[in-house]
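queue> pop job 88
queue> type: inverse folding (structure -> sequence)
queue> payload:
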């Protein structure tokens, strides 16, 4: 049985989530609930869940205020939020699960499925999330990447390029390290496009700081600083040439 706590200042939201869990996740047992940051912190000092369903905006503070109070996070957190573009982007950089209100049962089932399959220590991911939210005026410096067996926290400026591999993405780093990540290239294009990364081909996303030269022959391709070549699609060629002129 998976033990869970719900922290949300809206009683009806807690009731609805409990009903959804009864229907869609019969192996989840609610062992406690709280209506805010202060009450939630007291509850978590006395009992430890496997999963914490945590609302972001509450009357006496935010879910992130609660994270600051906790000395250690040794349980899974699934955030529940209304639409908040900045917070959602921070979740995606840290590869942390969140549910938008009103909670979609399919999204709830998906988040719980990932928990059952990957019971990993996520402390570093929450630290990364806190960094992203506190320094929201600065570019993100780190990114959480899920492989089949681990979560890797990497420095974005060390990524040379990303290559699509069906529903996976292969990451190549400046130290010749590689990681096969369980998300699509489109997911990372959305995250990294404002960090100096450019989609030059259906299967390739490159960090422009590592481009050495653009070779116009043979259909056009990029030579990267690590010696690899990356094809440029015919459709993207004019955009790539313009982008390089503006670097």
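queue> result:
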């Amino acid at each position: 049985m998976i033990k869970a706590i719900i922290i949300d200042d809206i009683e009806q939201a807690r009731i609805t989530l409990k009903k959804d869990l009864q229907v869609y996740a019969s192996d989840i047992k609610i062992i406690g609930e709280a209506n805010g940051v202060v009450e939630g912190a007291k509850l978590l000092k006395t009992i430890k869940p496997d999963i914490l369903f945590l609302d972001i905006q509450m009357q006496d503070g935010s879910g992130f205020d609660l994270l600051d109070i906790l000395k250690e996070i040794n349980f899974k957190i699934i955030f529940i939020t209304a639409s908040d573009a900045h917070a959602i982007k921070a979740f995606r950089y840290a590869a942390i699960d969140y549910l938008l209100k009103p909670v979609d049962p399919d999204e709830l089932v998906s988040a719980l499925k990932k928990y059952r399959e990957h019971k990993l220590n996520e402390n570093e991911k929450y630290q990364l999330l806190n960094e992203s939210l506190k320094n929201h005026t600065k570019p993100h410096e780190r990114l959480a990447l899920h492989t089949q067996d681990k979560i890797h926290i990497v420095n974005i400026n060390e990524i040379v390029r990303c290559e699509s591999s069906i529903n996976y993405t292969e990451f190549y780093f400046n130290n010749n390290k590689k990681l096969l990540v369980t998300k699509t290239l489109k997911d990372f294009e959305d995250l990294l496009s404002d960090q100096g990364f450019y989609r030059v081909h259906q299967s390739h996303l490159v960090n422009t700081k590592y481009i050495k030269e653009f070779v116009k022959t043979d259909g056009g391709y990029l030579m990267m600083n690590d010696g690899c070549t990356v094809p440029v699609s015919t459709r993207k060629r004019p955009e790539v040439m313009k982008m390089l002129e503006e670097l």
